Amino acid sequence: MRRSPSTATGPVPRRSVSLRLRVALASALSATVVVVLVGVLASVLLTREQVERLDRSLVPGSPAVLGSFASTRADLAVTLRGPTGTVRRVSGPELPLSPIGIPTSVTVEGVDYRIRTGPGPTPGSLVTVGATEDDTRARVAERERLVAGVGVAAVALAAGLGWLLAGRAVRPMRRLTEQAATLDRATAEPTAEPPIVRADGSRESEELAEALSAMLARLHAEQERSTASLHAARDFAAAARHELRTPLTAMRTDLEVLRAHPDLPERDAVLDDVLRAQARVEATLTALGHLAAGDLPDAGRGEAVGVVDLLRLAAEDARRAHPDLAVEVDAPGAEVPESVRGSLEGLRMALANAVVNAVRHGRAGTVRLGAGLGPDGGVVLTVDDDGTGLPAAEREAVLGRFVRGSTAGGPGSGLGLALVAQQAARHGGGVRLSEAPTGGLRVSLALGPDRAG
Amino acid sequence: MSEPSPDLLVVDDDADVRASLERGLRLSGFAVRSAEDGPGALRAVHERVPDAVVLDLGLPGMDGVAVVAALRAMDHDVPVCVLSARDTVDDRVVGLEAGADDYMVKPFALTELVARLRALLRRGARAAPAPAPALGEVITVGPLRVDLARRTVHVGERAVDLTKREYELLVVLARNADVVLTRERLLELVWGYDFATDTNVVDVFVGYVRRKLEADGTPRLVHTVRGVGFVLREGG
What we know:
heterodimer, A: alpha+beta, Heat Shock Protein 90, 2 domains, five-stranded mixed sheet, 8 helices, disordered N terminus, B: Arc Repressor Mutant, subunit A, five-stranded parallel sheet, four-stranded antiparallel sheet
């Protein structure tokens, strides 16, 4: 009944007795108890009944009759006693005297007799009739053997039935085991549905199967998540490698030119190009670092960030980073909550990236920062510019990582708006690009409604 | 260097890469034109067919593979060296399979690119890798039949369609049937690279040729001699 484990790794632990065998043994044991009790009772009753029957047959009668009767049966003995104490054996050995009318067991010449004494045919005489108990005992023993045989059969039957029924009862368990054994193969398929194990047939096995299925579903979901993030990380790494290789190619070519032509008249221009390529690499690495940090699960609900403070800080950042840019801040309306919960640094960086996008790719001269209330009640931070805008068809795509718009100018990593989108997602919202009232592009960074206040 | 500078077309969507390649190649003695996307490249070819093309595979819209395919479909057999910013085999495979002659992975050494371009141009200047074949000259190795005059290849009854570079590789291997050729020797004979260069372009092209020859289950003809090179022969 033992199944050798399908994957033989390490020492096989000692197996317990199978459930099926246990049930069979238990039913055999209970049957044995019942059979023994019934057997003992039957034996006692049988013996008593046989003895009573024997006793009833010991009816004293006339010696002659008794004698003729006794002579036909070797197991009978009759002894006649006269009034004077003379003893006359009619048949068999001499039987002792016993109290009148009461059947008694005696042993005569090594043979067990059941005797009964009664008044004889003549006054004063006593006749004692005895019968050997061998016959009775033999009959009792025969009945007892029958009972014992039936008992053994009953025990065997109980064991067999227990075995069969337990086999049916543990069948769901077996099925469960078989399914579990094939699970690792099923789950190895990357696109596989979460595996479901079934073990209909008993409530316990169904509950076990349900619990197992639920556990497998959890594991499956977990596995899918980690597979997806692994794929995302791999794609991301490939894209990052690709993105870094482009400026590095330009840099390497420029450096080789400088080495091959030490007296190049346009030397300074080449050096400027090298520096620009280097700045691109650096910016891409910085953005990658921010992205990686923002990909980490949000630690708690963040701090309370004043909306006005945030806009003021972002405007200062923008003026510092882009001295030629006119930065304006619209005071938020009264309906806008005073503060939001989130990461001040994250939101500041997101707004800074939106501004960089406006300057670098929109070639904007003015940006306008503001805050409003979204249709879902969440705060929406807006960065409007007066730049060249972006074709509507590209507004979704440029939010992706390493995607640059067709109107993109100057160096860029293709990560700026992706960073804005990431911060919006981190704050339970999203980013929408639209046309600004000032003619350029509007970046709307919506925060989740639960972030207000 | 009295002859006119070879006319190069550089196609890359990144302005920085384009600018530095233009400058580097110009200073290396080429006349350089550039284009920033596929349609622009085809327009430039239409204006004047360049002597060689340096082509980025990762162009937005019409990508480098499509440009190579379009060039070959228009019967332009100018040498094309593709540039890839990804080092996965897939990109190389598609770029070269479409008919490009060589590939380089970004970032690469400008001197290396210049050396390869010069070799490809020299090779292109000579019409064929060998003296013009006499009519009716046919090389036969087992089921393989290469008709040098018609530039056709048959395996048994099946015609095999090879790109220019694949055909030249097969001809060199077939002319030297039963002779093991090293990668260096093949680079020299097929690509004209008579300098040490780090590339597995030979292996990639051998892979293409094999795939085409064995398409209908024909036993392998081009064998790898481990650690040495390749040999064309019938049987193991």
